[in-house]
Amino acid sequence: MDTRTKIAVVYHSGYGHTKRLAEAVAEGASGLLVEINAEGNISEGEWAALDAADAIIFGSPTYMGSPSWQFKKFADASSKPWFEERWKNKIFGGFTNSASINGDKLNTLQYFVLLAGQHGGLWVGLAIKPANVKASKRDDLNRMGSYIGAMAQTDADAAPDEMSPGDLETARAYGVRIYDVAARLTARSAA
User: Fold this and answer.
1) What crossing angle do the helices spanning 165-190 and 17-29 adopt, rounded to 10°?
2) 2 within domain boundaries
3) 143 lies in a domain?
4) CATH number for the domain including 59?
5) Cα–Cα nearest to 144, from 172, 89, 102, 174
């Protein structure tokens, strides 16, 4: 991997499930994890890491049909980078988890796409065909059938270590894709 390409995975996790997804995405992208705390904040150093990144990947659980309030607070605080166009032309992606199969996860990913668009960014889709035939299993890649970003489903009474390996592998593969796209653009810019 090109060490010049910097990826940051900024996420909020309420119960640990989204954190596991963030770790899988970061593993695939060789990315830095930036956790939004329980008060919806990140440190000044973490804001600087986002500014320095070639790609920013958003993550949040889907609560009541949208990202957590902690993620929304972070998004609102990103108005300073927006005003100064510090994230313009960066690569963006996103992921989410909810307890229900649908859980309105699409709305969360669309929120991320809009946020990336407001920052003048370039969105990277999942590019993994859905597992949607009779032979498909719970642990297949992209069993949620998402195209915009990585989605996961975890039963409400399941611990983070009980998450679907297929959902985690989907997140890791998505991180690889985002890294590859960002590295191509980074190499072009350097040439």
Assistant:
1) 40
2) no
3) yes
4) 3.40.50.360
5) 102
- Written as six digits, the tokens of 159 are 């611990």
Q: Which domain holds residue 11?
A: 7-190
Q: State the Cα angle at 99 between 176 and 39, rounded to 5°.
A: 75
pTM above 0.85, yes or no: yes
Contact 37, 11 (CB under 8 A): no
- Examine residue 177 and state whether it is found in any structural domain, yes or no: yes
Taking the C-alpha atoms of residue 32 and residue 115, their distance in angstroms, rounded to an integer, is: 20
3-class SS of residue 64: coil
Angstrom distance (rounded) from CA 65 to CA 91: 25
State how far the Cα of 148 lies from the Cα of 156, in Å rounded to an integer.
Answer: 24
Q: What is the pLDDT of residues 22-47, one digit of tens each?
A: 999 999 999 999 999 999 999 999 99
Largest CA distance in the chain: 51
